[in-house]
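ugh ok fine here u go
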Amino acid sequence: MKNSLYLFILLFGSFFSCERNKNNGVEQIYQIPVNPQGNIDLSFSDFFDTTLIVPLEVTPNSLIGEVSKVITTDEFIYVLDRTIAESLFVFDYQGRLLNYFSGTGGGPSEYLRVSNFFISKDETTIFITDLSLGKILAFDQKGNFLFENKFVLGENFADLITYQNGFLIAKPTPDDLAVDLQYLDHNLKFVEVPFKLAENNFIMEAGNKHQFFYPGTGGVTYFKEVLSKNLYAITPDDVQVYAFNLPEDQVFSPEALPWDNEKPKIHMGKVYSEIRERSLLNVGDQVLDLGSLVLINFHVGDRINILAFNKTDKTAKVVKNFMNDLDGLVKNLPGLFPINYHANEMIINLFPNDIYAALGTSEESNPYLDYLTKLMPQLEENPVLFIYRKKIQQ
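structure:
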C-alpha cells in the first residue's frame, strides 16, 4: 500500500445520515509549534495509579513469538501475534489462556492466518481479517462463526474501529494514493465516505501500517499516520486537526523524482534512511491520551523520543525523561510500545530474558520487583504484559 505522507481533511456536505449526528465540518485546525530543544520530564505516577503484571500462560496452543497488538476489555486480554504464530490469543487477567484463533483453512467460514483483529462496541463479537484471503470474519466470544465478508478484488483495509452504530475503517483509496475513512454498518456493509483523507505532498511506497485509530478519553478517537505532521481527533460531532510545526530545515523534503508526471514517489525505506542519516525530525505514531497531555512517538534522527502535546495551551515539547517510578523495571521509557490499541492506557510487553536482565541491573526494591523476582522461576517462553491504568480524574 502506498500511503501519503501529509494528510488533510476534505469534508463532505453531510457527515452521516439522519439517524446519526450531523457534522458541521472541521471545527478548528490548530497549528502547534514544536520546540525540539524545549524538553520536559514526566513520571509514570503523574498519570497512572495502577500497574497490572500479567504473565501469559504457555500451552501448546499459546506459544507467542511476537506481540503485535493488545486490546483489553473488562474481562479479557486479546493478544495478536501477526508475524510468527499468525494467531490471536484470548487470556484472562491472571494470564490463563481462554481461547485462541489460528488458521483453519481457505474455505467458507475459514481463514489461513490472523492478519488483524477488532472488537465490537458491546465486546461480544471478534472480527478477524485474513489479508491473504481478502476477507473479514466475525466470531462470538466462544469462537463460534457468525458471518464473513469478502473484500472486492484488490481491495483491503488496514484498520477498523467502532463508531456510533457501525464502524469506521481506514483503507487505501481506489487509486492507492491515499487513505480514506469509510463508514460501515453493523454488518460491515459500506454506507458512505464521511470524509476523505488525501495526500498533498508526495506518495509513499511500501507504507504498510496496521493501526491508524487510537481510542482515547471522552469519546475521542485519534487518527495518526506514521509520517504525517497531523494528529486528527474525531468525535461524533466534529473533527479537529492538530498540525505540528517543525523547523523546515529539519524535516524530510522529497527529491523531485517523477511519478505520473505529477508527484514524486518515495519509498518508506528512503525516508527513514534520510531521517536517520541527516538527524531529521518526524512526528511518528502511537498515541497515549493522558488528559491534558497527549504523548506521541517522535523521531530525532535514529532515536525514538516522545512528544508531549498540551491540549490546553496548544504547545508541544520533547520528553527528556519518562521515568517509571511505579514498578521501575523499565526505568526510563524512551518511546511508546507499538502494541498499544487504547490511547487511554499504556501497555509494555517484556519477554522473560528481558525481565531477567532488567532485574539483574536493578538496585531498587518495591512490591512489583519483589513479585517479579519470585515469578521468574515460573516464567517460560511467553511474554509478560505490564498494563498501566490512568488515574481517575475527579
